[in-house]
Amino acid sequence: MPPPPPPQANGGKVTPNLAMDAEATRMLNLTVLQRLDPAVEDILITAAHVTLYDFNIDLNQWSRKDVEGSLFVVKRNSQPRFQFIVMNRRNTGKHIAICTDFLACCFGR
């Protein structure tokens, strides 16, 4: 059996296959999300790091919640069809926001 081909070099530096790494990361994330919720069928949007805040109308101020981590907007094969999921790094619980109305999710209406 012949040895594997050498990595592509660019001026003596190894050029990583970023497209393959991105797809591998996406598939790993999808697998983890499907363990938490088997109805998840696709990841639509991701953000590496988010922090959730509450707005107190009476005090007119923001307060930080105990939720921060990677954000995933997912498509599901059952109702609700779309969700925001934050893989919470601050504690073991995940945070899920059901998104039936995009404006309601974003602006609390």
From TrEMBL:
GO terms for MF: enzyme activator activity; mRNA binding
Pfam families: DCP1 (PF06058)
Localization of this protein: Cytoplasm
Main location: cytoplasm
SUPFAM superfamilies on file: PH domain-like (SSF50729)
GO BP: any one term: deadenylation-dependent decapping of nuclear-transcribed mRNA
Cytoplasm is among the record's keywords: yes
One GO CC term on file: P-body
The keyword Cytoplasm is annotated on this UniProt entry: yes
Protein name (record): mRNA-decapping enzyme-like protein
Organism of derivation: Miscanthus lutarioriparius
